[in-house]
């Protein structure tokens, strides 16, 4: 668990982070969003003490970070940044094994761990272990960055715009992988992003910052439904908030059981977001879809009226 109590950071006269309090539970993914320069990266870097906070307290599992040895603290916390920070003259395997080597793990254990992580992140060792960073695509280099951050099995991962430089398709696939990893490994993650869709898709807790302060935090759906002010509303998508909310709600939450009517021709998966169902209705110019389970068996139907949250007909 990560806790910030009334934390402030000053650079000279400038207040970069202004009296923020935040609690990230174990296993939670917390996304920090806000306009450029609002203090997101500074907040992240105060947690692993790349930047020292000026006032307040930051605790990891109840212990103030100031009391940790800095090196040991950073080895306990994985850190992933947009530019990856890989060492260019080291192979992929050596880059991933960096922290376990610093921790003086036995060689065979490091080798096994590196191979395990490469498998986990879809980088077959036979193909990638001996490559150098310049021989990788942007997406592959980011995977290596994530593997390196996970190497010593840290409980906490700090990720600063980790997928910022990637094309939308690679980005989405890494977001899926991160979500799968999170479901399996239960890391506590603080994630900085400029991309609201990314934040909404990944976050358990969404934190909106503005000029060094936290203006609102909560579950993404809560912020979408009840933004505290116009700034939060517009950051979260303005008039598109309805679509973004539909992106967070599953078809199964609105569908009705199969009725006596004929099955609608177009089918949608029960696990799909309502947004996809709406898009299908618009595309096919229909107002009813058949809902199917994972085996493509019809289990219900979704009408446009139900989709928008109207009363069942
Ligand atoms: N080392 C530093 N020295 C002086 N000022 C700094 C330093 N690092 C950050 N700042 C200032 O602190 C404020 C917050 O910066 P920070 O990088 O945390 O913002 P951010 O929200 O991550 O921005 P962006 O989204 O553009 O990356 C900015 O005004 C920045 O100029």
UniProtKB/TrEMBL annotation:
It comes from the Bacteria. Residues 2-236 form the ABC transporter domain. One of its GO terms (molecular function) is ATP binding. It holds the Pfam family ABC_tran. InterPro entries: AAA+_ATPase, ABC_transporter-like_ATP-bd, ABC_transporter-like_CS, CBS_dom_sf, P-loop_NTPase. Keywords: ATP-binding, Nucleotide-binding, Transport. Belongs to the ABC transporter superfamily. This is ABC transporter ATP-binding protein. It comes from Billgrantia campisalis.
